[in-house]
Amino acid sequence: MQKIVQFIKGKFYFFCAFILSKGIVFFAPLFLAEILSKEDFGVLEYALAGLGMILNTLLGLGVSGAYPYFKLREKNSDLNNAFSLHYIWFLLFFVVTQIVYYGLGFSIQYYIALNVAYVVSNQVYISTQLKTNERITPAVLLDSGVYISLLIFGVLAYFNILPSSIATFSYIVLAYAFLYVFYAITQFKTIDKTNILANYITVLKYSIHVVLGGLLIYFITVSGRLLIEYFLKDFELVAIYAFYFRLSAVIVMIYQIINIAFFKKMYEFEPKILDKYFAVCFVILYGIAIISFFIATFILPYFSSFYTSTITEYKSVYYLLSAQMVFWIATALLSNIIDREKLASKNNPLFLILVLVFLAILFVLRSQLDLKLFIGIHLSVIALASLIQIFTLRKKNIYFKYSFIVLVSIFLINIITIKVFF
């Protein structure tokens, strides 16, 4: 009991920061869903959490995954200047984006997505460094940066101080991006430039496999907004998907506590121990997801007009997304193990095949595709991705058997529930 009390005391500021920052991440988009039209909210989510997040993965070049590997696994401190140089790559991307947009012009949702990619890439990269060095409180605050700008936009629009338009949000994101511009310049001025390019190439040789894996897993897990807009041609459906995705993500906040508080342990614990922890985690999170789904029916009608106007038609969508989150979390946790064991190059071809099969199925079924069918297919693909990761780990005689049993069981329970009740 004393150890538990000491743990809580030691993590007190972290939990306070976590509740604040993740509360903003959770509630800010739902708040905007009540202010914006469904189409505008769909465009915002498309740019912010769809295209923006996939571009962020590509822009990062996998260096965020390389940092803990070289620091914790290889214990190599000779590459510090290479990690500082990475901010200049981000900065070049940002500068080119502004030149092309203001010089040639293109759709605002793409402009927002590019600026969000720049901001989130910096957030993720700095946050990863903080987590690796066990500075978890500032890391968790930094993770919510772009959503703080979203909340500011929502509050100012709600009180009619600023117009509730996508263009207004674009300016707020741009202003926030300049903080990272100044940070990049400061980093470049202060770093030791000895062998900096050679060191950077060393990091990239490892990280290229990480970025390919990251890009594939991001496409598998968070491409819903992009693919719904492409195949169903309707930003309102993107908005409905995004709204229930956000509601279902309440269990993601619990996962993030685990990921942030025990990030370093992911690179140090034995796989057998992690397997047991992961399996228990999946069971608990699935239980919380289903309980949250039922509780929402009693609470949300008092607070959300978006919910009351859509839940009757899209209740099955909400349920499917609640279950999908467990598999999303599974792929995220298992990705840490894939990276630490240097198995990304083995896993990537299987993920590429999965993505191509996923797209082929959507193309074949495009004439009869609706939101429920899309999410059912997407959930199955994400579940299969987590099982592929477990299969890949076997190549190093690492067996996540308890995780495998739990994930398969959850998937089968979900199929039965949908067939019987929806």
Report on this model:
The chain is an all-alpha fold. The protein folds into 2 domains: 29-209, no CATH class; 223-422, no CATH class. It is built from 18 helices and no strands. The protein has helices spanning 2-10, 12-35, 38-60, 63-73, 80-103, 108-132, 136-143, 145-158, 166-190, 196-222, 224-232, 235-248, 250-261, 271-299, 305-340, 344-364, 371-393, 401-421. The longest helix has 36 residues, at 305-340. The model has no long low-confidence stretch (mean pLDDT 86).
Count of individual beta strands: 0
Gyration radius, rounded: 21 Å
The percent range for helix content is: over 70%
Strand content of the residues, in percent? Answer: under 5%
Oligomeric assembly: single chain
Mean pLDDT over all positions: 86
C-alpha termini separation:
45 Å
Number of spatially distinct domains: 2
Q: Pick out the low-confidence regions.
A: none
Secondary structure class reads mainly alpha
Give me the number of helical elements: 18
Q: Could you say which overall geometry the principal axes of the C-alpha atoms support?
A: globular
Q: How would you spell out the order of helices and strands?
A: HHHHHHHHHHHHHHHHHH
Largest sheet: none
